[in-house]
Write a structure and sequence with these properties.
The complex is a heterodimer.
Chain A (H helix, E strand, L loop, with lengths): L9 H17 L2 H9 L6 H9 L22 H9 L6 H14 L6 H5 L4 E3 L6 E4 L2 E10 L6 E8 L2 E8 L8 E3 L9 E9 L2 E6 L2 H36 L1 E2 L2 E2 L4 H27 L5 H26 L1 H4 L6 H15 L2 H13 L2
Parallel strand pairs in A: 1-4, 2-4
Antiparallel strand pairs in A: 2-3, 3-7, 4-5, 5-8, 6-7, 9-10
Chain B lengths: L2 H19 L18 H16 L18 H13 L8 H14 L2 H13 L4 E4 L15 E5 L2 E12 L6 E7 L11 E7 L5 E6 L8 E12 L3 E2 L5 H12 L17 H12 L8 H23 L12 H23 L19 H14 L4 H11 L11
Parallel strand pairs in B: 1-4
Antiparallel strand pairs in B: 2-3, 3-7, 4-5, 5-8, 6-7
The chains are: A alpha+beta, B alpha+beta.
Chain lengths: 354, 403
């Protein structure tokens, strides 16, 4: 192992500073609550601001008008969005952009992404079947699918897997259906196709690309959950400072205080693993650091939000208490990041067998 | 010569010196930490060893030359400390002098104190111990009851201190004693002394540790007279100075003489031990063991990353004190837990202890686990650390139950 395990470049540090301020300002908890009740689930005007900040161009190659940076550069932005429960298709678009760059052949789409169009991707593990050159079947968990301009999906023809793009305006009414997600701050849709032929083939998918894309998505979710872990700790701490029982703030009791310290430490570890992964992603140490970041983020966000609910007492059991928002966002995050047990098994192989 | 080149040369010199001078087998068990010096043989060996390391220029390299230091930038001492660890060299004996008392004296001591104590700390000529905890006041230091009564040019000390590391060997003690006898004086009534140990009225009784070994004493003061100029700071400033001392002890403040005072086990050593135990091709096959090792490797890396991240300003901007304040708790609890796992993963071999032929690595891991409690209890227990973090990092109210 040569070089530092953790470091942050000047551009990334600037992004972190801007994203920290932007997300705190644009996504106060009242706005988050408003978006939950909104059909689209996010504000188009806020998305336009995100695009104008250049954040959807971070991964777009320079010859397509972007910054041509690595996935790690988007981590500070995703972390701060997760921290504020900010609703926007940024993570979905970022994962799709990385996928297009990996597959190649997305030249027509990349400038559109930089310009703010929403390109999302269906899970590659559930391909549409190809028959006579047409697609049929139903695929779910397409994040922000109803708001998307383009949906990327895997298609299976015999034993060949390819990536295709579908313009949503070419879809019939009712093809996209909103799903009921555990996380009210995000949206997903299922897509049902019946002998559909209006799609563009982007390129071939092999096991390496599919695996790399899944790790991309997992790392992005780890960033979202790491931000969420921090916020869940802060929300619980705020309540423990204010809430008085038996004549004392409940945070003065060690049963609460020590529990909060435990989850604070979990969130700090998650952040260290996350920024190490952001720094090392794409290098030989990238896979170990990314999987560690995922495992620790799932643990930290789950435990912090779980304790945040518990430490709010009766209020924690209500929909009005914000603690559940972090817990439920982390439940979706963990599901999207892939089974933690499999990440741990792979880590054991990487660390003990190779 | 460029800075980098000079430092590289220094690193090469240090590596060469430790390779040449680190003893292979001294014929008896060496302590893994400065808290485990239980026999005269161990003490004599380590005292001589520290003196040699200092004379070679690899201890106190960044301390002022006026007092026996090397006068070099801190990076040089860090390089030397790493070289000693890498070579598996014995520990530095005079830990409380080198890393707690020395930097405190250099920081706030008088010129006379610097001239009197610093060189002998480096050469191990004068061994230091710490007199903070008392039998009835462990974590609650502010209630210490040992009295220091002014009598002419002396203070007369009466009381008892406990957990005195190397107390039976020490020449000096950093002593926290009460100069104000008012019942409610608490922290305000404490003063800080640099007290001689080898005088009438001071005696020590060794304490046998849970490992069966020695390393600590209880120290008794029965009207011991120490000169008034042993006091550091003014009367009543003892608590303030003790808190500063604890910052050096916990590593929250820099300026230590350097050298490793604890030989830590690492996950890599643990895995190597398990591979030897597995025999054959050394593969670790048990899925539960593999999963537990993933946790250990992740937590170990998190600690290294936390340390590195605490120096990266943009990544600690919102809570700069958090990582330094959680370090002691996270690190000591990790070591305890890892050593416990290493013991339990030995299966039936885990039954054997130091001295038995069947013991794995002569009971190293069992001994390390039991000794690990010295760090999760000493210097403020893990539970006290959680109070400190809860109050000073998270901003939670103090526990107001008792008073």
């Amino acid at each position: 192992m040569s070089g530092a395990l953790i470091s942050i470049g000047e551009t990334e540090a600037d992004l972190l500073g801007v994203a920290t301020k932007f997300c705190a300002e644009k996504a106060p908890i009242e706005a988050v609550r408003r978006w939950i009740d909104d059909a689209q689930g996010f504000e188009s005007a806020l998305w336009a601001e995100i695009v104008s900040l250049g954040w959807t161009s971070i991964l777009v190659p320079e010859d397509a008008g972007g910054l041509g940076m690595e996935l790690g550069a988007t981590i500070p932005v995703v972390e701060q969005m997760g921290r504020r429960l900010l609703a926007a298709p940024f993570t979905a678009v970022t994962a799709s952009t990385a996928l297009l760059v990996r597959v190649g052949g997305g030249e027509a789409l990349l400038p559109r992404i930089a310009a703010g169009e929403i390109v999302t991707a269906a899970p590659l593990s559930t391909p549409f079947m190809v028959k006579d050159g047409t697609l049929s079947g139903t695929v779910g968990l397409i994040l922000w699918g109803e708001a998307a301009d383009v949906i990327l999906a895997a298609v299976e023809d015999g034993n060949r897997l390819s990536l295709i793009a579908i313009e949503t305006k070419a879809l019939g009414t009712g093809a996209l259906k909103r799903e009921s997600l555990i996380d009210d701050t995000r949206r997903s849709a299922s897509l049902t196709l019946d002998r559909f032929d209006d799609f563009t083939v982007i390129g071939a998918l092999d096991a390496d690309v599919v695996g790399a894309h899944q790790l991309d998505r997992a790392l992005l979710e780890a960033a979202d959950m790491t931000g969420g872990a921090r916020a869940a700790v802060d929300v619980a701490v705020g309540y423990a400072q204010d809430r008085v029982q038996f004549g004392r703030p409940i945070g003065s009791y060690q049963a609460i205080k020590h529990g909060l310290v435990d989850v604070h430490i979990g969130a700090e570890k998650a952040r260290s693993h996350l920024y190490s992964a952001a720094h090392l992603y794409g290098t030989g140490e990238g896979e170990v650091s990314a999987r560690m970041a995922v495992v620790q983020a799932v643990k930290a966000a789950s435990e912090a939000a779980d304790r945040a609910i518990q430490f709010h007492g009766g209020f924690g059991f209500t929909y009005d208490c914000d603690a559940q928002l972090y817990r439920r966002r982390a439940m979706l995050g963990a599901a999207l990041a892939g089974d933690v047990r499999q990440h741990r098994q792979r880590l054991a192989e990487l660390l003990l067998d190779e | 010569m460029s800075e980098t080149k000079a430092l590289e040369d220094f690193r090469r010199d240090a590596d060469a010196w430790f390779a040449e001078n680190t003893p292979k087998d001294v014929g008896f068990m060496l302590p893994l930490t400065f808290m485990e010096v239980g026999t005269q043989q161990q003490f004599d060996f380590l005292r001589d060893w520290q003196r040699r390391v200092w004379e070679a220029g690899f201890l106190g390299a960044a301390w002022p030359t006026d007092y026996g230091g090397g006068g070099l930038p801190q990076a040089y001492q860090d390089v030397a400390t790493e070289a000693g660890k890498r070579a598996g060299a014995p520990i530095m004996l005079n830990a409380i002098g080198l890393n707690w008392t020395g930097p405190l004296i250099l920081d706030i001591g008088t010129e006379a104190q610097k001239a009197a104590y610093i060189r002998d700390i480096l050469s191990a000529e004068a061994i230091w111990c710490q007199g903070f905890s008392e039998p009835e006041h462990g974590s609650d230091l502010g209630s210490a009851q040992t009295r220091a009564v002014r009598d002419g040019d002396d203070y007369v000390i009466t009381g008892s201190k406990i957990w005195t590391t190397q107390g039976n060997f020490a020449d000096y003690m950093i002593l926290l004693a009460r100069t104000d006898g008012a019942p409610d004086s608490r922290h305000r009534g404490l003063s800080f002394f640099l007290s001689p140990m080898k005088i009438d009225g001071i005696s020590t009784t060794p304490i046998r540790k849970l490992t069966g070994e020695y390393g600590f004493t209880q120290t008794f003061f029965e009207g011991a007279r120490i000169p008034a100029d042993c006091r550091m700071g003014a009367e009543g400033e003892g608590w303030k100075i003790a808190v500063r001392l604890l910052e050096y002890e916990r590593g929250a403040r820099g300026g230590q003489a350097g050298g490793h005072v604890i030989t830590d086990q690492t996950p890599d050593q643990m895995i190597a031990m398990l591979r030897r135990l597995a025999g054959g091709n050394g593969a670790i096959a048990d899925p539960l063991m593999r999963d537990e090792l993933v946790d250990i490797l992740m937590d170990y890396r998190a600690i290294q990353l936390n340390r590195a991240r605490s120096a990266i300003a943009p990544l600690v901007a919102e809570a700069p004190h958090s990582l330094p304040l959680i370090e002691k708790l996270v690190w000591t609890e990790f070591m305890r837990s890892m050593n416990q796992s290493a013991t339990s993963m030995q299966g039936a071999h885990g039954a054997y202890y130091v001295g038995d032929e069947a013991a794995v690595e002569d009971g190293l891991w069992q001994r390390a686990y039991l000794n690990a409690f010295s760090a999760t209890i000493g210097g403020g227990t893990s539970q006290i650390q959680k109070n400190i973090i809860g109050e000073h990092v998270l901003g939670l109210a103090k526990d107001g139950g008792g008073r």
